[in-house]
Structure formats: structure tokens, C-alpha cells
Write a structure and sequence with these properties.
By secondary structure, this protein is α+β, with helices and mostly antiparallel strands. Helix content is 19%, strand content 46%. Strands 1, 2, 3, 4, 10, 12, 13 and 14 form an eight-stranded mixed sheet that branches. Strands 5, 6, 7, 8, 9 and 11 form a six-stranded antiparallel sheet that branches. Strand 1 and strand 2 (37-41) form a beta hairpin. Helix 1 runs antiparallel to helix 2. The longest helix is centred in the C-terminal third of the chain and has 25 residues, at 189-213. The protein is elongated. The two termini are 52 Å apart.
Length: 235
């Protein structure tokens, strides 16, 4: 029983990492910003305009990265994105990062879109988008399995969705991501559940042991000064 519980506890603790790394080869995207910035997502980026969803191509027109003086930038350019409800001639996404005090963070996101959606002409240039905070310690990459949404402050008609992001804008070595800093944090739901179950089972086990220890053997006839127990045998 104890071995089974330890195995179950270890599975609960490690399963978020397993799910985080389980990225389908059919859908994942990877953008190499000229070796300066690495960007990966579990699925292609989705841009919603006027309630129309445009799936950005796995292979952009260009992916460029720059890094100097504590700042880094990833620029993705997409061309000719279309579906039944509209067509986008160009989509430019710029993500800027900065580092200080041993951490790096995404300091700014900008998007430019030209095209039509639901019959509406769209011509947005350098629109600032805001959403989930992205930051990690130096030499670490940032990872989040959830769907992150980014949009302008006062405009709900433009939303950028990123699922299963992993990004590293600084100190890339050996052409691979560094250790991941997950948005879930150390105390995930699975870990808290495991801790709660461990406390509950430990409390039940302690209560059971205390109940067993409180059981007293019958000592009514164990007094050496008292009258001995006599059992008459009938022949």
C-alpha cells in the first residue's frame, strides 16, 4: 500500500511536466529568430479579427531576431492568410524583451495587420497588445501550457492566441532551449492535490494507530491478591 501511494504521489508531481513536453509533431511551430530568439508553440498562432479566426502559417515569410545591450526582439512576418470569412495580406508581430536584476521579461508586444474580415477593411499599424506576463530567470526559457491571449487595451476585436508557448530571448547555448520556467509555478494543482492526499492518509493512519494503542486487554482476573479463577469440570 505504501509503495503504491509513493508511486501515485510521484506520478502526480511529474505529470504536469510530461504534459508540458507532450507536443504533437503535426501541430507544433518553432521560430528561430536568426539564432538570437527561440520561440515555440504547441499549435500555430491564431489571430481573431471581428470574430473571425485566422490561423497563422507554420512557416512565416520571415523570422528575425536581434539582441544587444540587454534588449532582444523577435519579428515574425506572415503573408496571405485567408479563410472563408476574410483575407489578410500581411501580419507583422513584434515581441520585445529586456533583462535586468537576473531576470528577463517581455516588455512590449506590437502587431500590424492589413486585410479584410467579415467584410470590414482592416489596416492596423503597430498596435500595442497586452496579456499574460512573460518573464523568467536568466539562462531559462519561459514555458506555459495554457492558451495565452494578447489584445489592445480598448479593442476587443483583435485578439492574438498562443497555446503552449516556450520562448527564450537571451543566452541560447548549443542551439537549444534552456531549462524551462513554467507559468504554473511550483505549487501546481496536481502537487497540492498530492500533498492534501498525503496529509489525509497520514491523519487517518495516525488515528487508526492511536485507536489500536488505546485498546486495553481484559485484566479482571489478573490480580495476584484476588480470588483465583476456578473452573469446575464436570465428568
Amino acid at each position: 500500500m505504501d509503495k503504491f501511494f509513493l508511486f501515485f504521489l510521484a506520478y502526480l508531481i511529474t505529470c504536469p511536466k510530461a504534459f508540458a513536453d507532450d507536443v504533437s509533431n503535426d501541430t507544433r511551430v518553432f521560430y528561430n529568430g536568426t539564432g538570437e530568439v527561440f520561440f515555440k508553440a504547441q499549435e500555430p498562432l491564431v489571430l481573431k479579427l471581428n470574430n473571425v479566426s485566422f490561423v497563422l502559417d507554420k512557416d512565416p515569410e520571415s523570422a528575425e531576431g536581434t539582441s544587444e545591450n540587454g534588449t532582444s526582439t523577435l519579428t515574425l512576418k506572415f503573408k496571405d492568410i485567408s479563410n472563408e470569412a476574410g483575407q489578410l495580406s500581411s501580419v507583422d508581430l513584434v515581441m520585445s524583451f529586456s533583462e535586468s536584476m537576473g531576470y528577463w521579461k517581455m516588455s512590449k508586444g506590437m502587431i500590424s495587420v492589413k486585410g479584410t474580415a467579415n467584410g470590414t477593411q482592416i489596416d492596423n499599424t503597430d498596435v500595442a497588445i497586452h496579456g499574460q506576463k512573460i518573464e523568467a530567470p536568466r539562462r531559462f526559457s519561459y514555458h506555459c501550457s495554457r492558451v495565452l491571449s494578447y489584445k489592445p487595451v480598448n479593442d476587443t476585436n483583435l485578439v492574438l492566441l498562443i497555446k503552449g508557448i516556450q520562448v527564450q530571448p537571451f543566452e541560447i547555448t548549443d542551439d537549444r532551449f534552456g531549462r524551462s520556467y513554467d507559468c504554473q509555478g511550483f505549487f501546481s494543482i496536481a502537487l497540492l492535490t498530492a500533498i492534501f492526499l498525503a496529509i489525509l492518509i497520514g491523519a487517518l493512519l495516525g488515528w487508526g494507530i492511536s485507536m489500536l494503542m488505546s485498546v486495553n486487554a481484559p485484566d479482571r482476573f489478573d490480580d495476584p491478591k484476588g480470588k483465583p479463577l476456578v473452573v469446575n469440570a464436570l465428568e
